[in-house]
Amino acid sequence: MPIAAKQLLEKIRELPLPDKVRIMNVCGGHERSISMAGLRTALPSTIELIPGPGCPVCICPEEDIYQAIQIAVNEDVVLLAFGDMLRVPVNVPKAAIRTLEQAKAAGADIRPIASPTEAVKIATANPEKTVVFFVAGFETTCAPVAAMLAEGIPDNLLLLMSGRLTWPAVAMLLDSDTPAFDALIAPGHVATIMGSEEWRFVVNQHHIPAAVAGFSTESLLAATYSVLRQLIEKKVFLDNCYTQVVKPDGNLIAKNILSDVFDVIDAPWRGIGIIPQSGLELSEKYAAHNARYRFPVYAEEARKKAGAMPPGCDCAKVVLGKIKPNECRLYGEACVPRNPVGPCMVSDEGACRIWWASGIKSSLPMKSMEVPS
Questions:
Q1: For the whole model, what pTM was predicted?
Q2: What are the structural domains, with CATH classification, of the chain?
Q3: In whole angstroms, what is the distance from residue 301 CA to residue 182 CA?
């Protein structure tokens, strides 16, 4: 551990901590850094670090994945998606195609990509084909997608949007009767685009300590130290512990492009339900590239009833910070990375997958983080 991180850890250990303090980190990248650095065991046992709703694959609506599968299987298209999305299962009979990966094995032209520029290259190289880019992601994913559209894309490239905004999910948790956390570590990569001020509502409206952090151990420990000091001293404020790249107002150019390309809509989160003003859909200006308009038949209303997590899967509780990943009933038993049942075990940003990769291989009874629904 770097010297600065060790010094911060010692400062945290010297604090007069309460018997229990729950700190939620929103970002899947934060959770990965915390787990791989072993911060949960290094910090005092009274500090509980809770992974939050920062995995776009985990909360992508089941009906959107189903629609992408049906378009790929039934239409003469090339379907593109970020790699993690290919293995997320939908709720259909076992004999039916359950993932994009299975659809690809069945003959559909489905290709994993790593960036929006690849989508433009593939569409340009295949002008005779309709290319559908299935976009699931938060602000950091949607910003380059918006820039791609603003610059101009080939006529044969369509987008199936499943973009989401991060802060509304946190607002929903804080508006509940029993918030699962006492302090918040806000996502630095999102704040790079949207600005640290986007998280001021946590402090002003809910009087909960908040700090923006980057991915390094030092930044995460600095944010942890900040929110603990705020709690102890009862002086709540929004702290930016990632000043190298995060500004109060964020990236104004990127924000303007996002506003031009997308409309903000009420949107479903898998296993959670509709969160107001949390979704990004193509604006009317870019409607010609909206795959939902081109292939409306696959947007089945009935899928919304099937849109919950798979039977027995507690991914929604994990995403909401109500239970630890290994308190899921299926963790390490029916659900493992090579055969995932729920999306949290699929994605590299999913808490279950991260905990498994960090060496936690067995499940525990639900207890420590569970709160009433």
A1: 0.92
A2: 3-55+179-240 (3.40.50.11750), 57-166+251-304 (3.40.50.11740), 315-357 (no CATH)
A3: 38
